[in-house]
């Protein structure tokens, strides 16, 4: 399965915020510089994460972006599924005419089962399982 860029960048942001242990807030400019992602794209990502209560944001001098408790407790599979839900299903039998449109075609159901197994497997872990000790050097710069 290939994750979309939105999910990839969202996970990077969440992992980065998680590494900071909520000690400092992050700004859009900081995230844009760290990941070399356009600030405009990050605005959309952070807005989505905020609307889904995965991060909290505060404007102003003492503002910034912090990871939420919900994001820390959520299984990685559920997190990925939430981020990917904007996309189409693994297979969309109705997007183009299909000669197999019938109840006898099993491809969609097999892919749905495989996708659920993927999500279930990822749900055995949380963001905290992705922490690396060597990442601490990133924050000292």
Automatic annotation (TrEMBL):
Record flagged with keyword DNA-binding: yes
> Transmembrane: present as a keyword of the record?
no
Transmembrane intervals: none
Recorded superkingdom:
Bacteria
- Cite the InterPro entries for this sequence: Tscrpt_reg_Rrf2, WH-like_DNA-bd_sf, WH_DNA-bd_sf
Keywords associated with the record: DNA-binding
The name under which this protein is listed is Rrf2 family nitric oxide-sensitive transcriptional repressor
